[in-house]
Design a protein that fits this description.
single chain, mainly alpha, 0% strand
Length: 81
């Protein structure tokens, strides 16, 4: 059961950072609305909406949203070619 309204614009059509697109795909995969994720994470709904229009999220808020849907941010060494 979806919690909230469905996105009206496809994620791939948004002009935003690729990490934000990936986050939005993860949210869509959980079948929840951004408004619900905002409430869970403590990050403002409008803040997350601004990320979709080319605003860059701060790391603290981005990580809070990821954690609210069961993910975390990780840094790993790039593999040599």
């Amino acid at each position: 059961m979806r919690l909230g309204r469905k996105r009206t614009i496809e994620v791939d059509d948004l002009r935003c950072d690729p990490l934000v697109k990936e986050l939005l795909h993860l949210i869509d995969g959980k079948d929840v609305a951004v408004k619900y994720v905002a409430k869970l994470s403590g990050v403002g709904f409008r803040t997350i909406l601004r990320w979709q229009t080319n605003n860059i999220p701060n790391l603290y808020n981005f990580r809070a949203v990821l954690q609210s849907i069961g993910y975390d941010l990780e840094i790993k060494k790039k593999e040599d070619d």
